[in-house]
Write a structure and sequence with these properties.
The chain is mainly α and 128 residues long. Helices cover 72% and strands 0% of the residues. Helix 3 crosses helix 5.
């Protein structure tokens, strides 16, 4: 599984975990197709984002203007959490790549304004 696909799957898993009472394993099982096996990068993204959610949310709150995290649409909030996890905790991927992947995820799963919003928030992290 390529990293882009792993990020897409991780976004779907995180979205489910935020919306339901599923366990980590159940959520991954729902997202992966039967012939697919899990992937270390996918699991790292999901576990890392969920385990560091408090720190990620605090960093996001600091960089949101005229918004609170709870007011954000779920998809943008989930994309931002995933990207901020990579920017702050999984630093092996260049920040430009993380930002580009997050923008693409928001174009795929969000509405026409999502990618601009995500780009605006994440650009504050790259400036830090």
């Amino acid at each position: 599984m390529k990293r882009t696909e792993a990020r897409q799957k991780a976004l779907q898993v995180l979205f489910q975990l935020d919306s339901t009472e599923l366990t980590f394993e159940e959520a991954i099982g729902h997202v992966l197709e039967e012939e697919q096996r899990s992937n270390a990068f996918l699991e790292q993204l999901v576990r890392g984002t969920t385990e560091n959610k408090t720190d990620i949310d605090a960093a996001l709150e600091k960089n949101l203007e005229n918004w609170t995290l709870s007011r954000l649409p779920k998809i943008e909030r989930t994309v931002l959490r995933l990207a901020v996890y990579e920017l702050l905790f999984a630093t092996e991927t260049p920040s430009k790549v993380v930002m580009n992947e997050a923008i693409e995820l928001s174009k795929t799963f969000g509405d026409e304004k999502s990618s601009k919003f995500v780009n605006g928030v994440l650009s504050k992290f790259s400036a830090e």
